[in-house]
Amino acid sequence: MSTKSTPVIAVIGSDGSGKSTVCEHLVSTLSEYGTTSYVHLGKQAGNVGRAAANLPLIGRSVGHKIEKTRVKVNKTNHTTLSGLVVGLFLIRRVRRFRNMLSLRKQGHIILADRYPHLQVPGAYDSLTLPSAPSKNPFINWITKRELNAFQWMTQYRPDLVIKLNVSLDVACARKPDHRRDALRRKIEITPKLDFGGKKIINIDADQPLAQVLAQVDTLVDEFMVEQGFKKVIKGEVV
């Protein structure tokens, strides 16, 4: 489902692919075409855990606790605590998604860091709980709520998906605090995802940053022109 209005542009890729840098740059680029809003539609569980680990005195134990309660879709036994963690992150994601839709309705161009999908359950930005019934009624209830939320969110397809494809060695060099096996899984899954996007752009994220940004700029400019947008600089259409 997509309204005939300003576009939603999603930037996806493994950690270490340069998503944050590309998004920060594109906000400036897209702002030349109109009011642009940056939204993060991921779970950010890893960021929360790493931030908690840096807290004084209790940081290490808190970070370890969050790491232990992170849920994997292929796990069969889930606790009430892990279900609660999933539920809390889900509430935040749905709230952000609703905010994104509201901003788009107001005429904002949307730049999304990550995007929800149902293509590969368990892959980043997708479901975290398995569909198999649990003996825990609370887990079953959370599982149903999560599936319903993702079915609703994925009705809204991005107009453009920018895929940042990075090699494992480069990603590890850029993100030395991340587990190599976790990065490998994300890198392997990225080519399989299109997030239902109407147009897909693939970028070699191993390139020097200046080349990546220049290539993204050129392709996004072409896309915006195709959509009928013109640059507005200091009140003048160019």
In CATH terms, the superfamily is P-loop containing nucleotide triphosphate hydrolases
Described by strand count, sense and barrel closure, the largest sheet is: 5 strands, parallel
Shape, per Cα inertia axes: globular
Q: Which range does the strand content fall in? A: 5-15%
Q: Biggest sheet: strands side by side, in what order?
A: 2-3-1-4-5
Question: Can you describe what's shown?
Answer:
The protein has helices spanning 19-30, 45-53, 59-69, 80-105, 137-153, 168-174, 180-189, 209-226, and strands at 8-13, 36-40, 109-113, 160-165, 200-204, 232-233, 236-237. It has 238 residues and is α/β, with parallel strands linked by helices. The protein has one domain (8-43, 79-237): P-loop containing nucleotide triphosphate hydrolases (Rossmann fold), CATH 3.40.50. The protein has a five-stranded parallel beta sheet, sandwiched between helices. The longest helix has 26 residues, at 80-105. The two termini are 31 Å apart.
Summarize it:
The chain is an alpha/beta fold and 238 residues long. The chain has helices at residues 19-30, 45-53, 59-69, 80-105, 137-153, 168-174, 180-189, 209-226, and strands at residues 8-13, 36-40, 109-113, 160-165, 200-204, 232-233, 236-237.
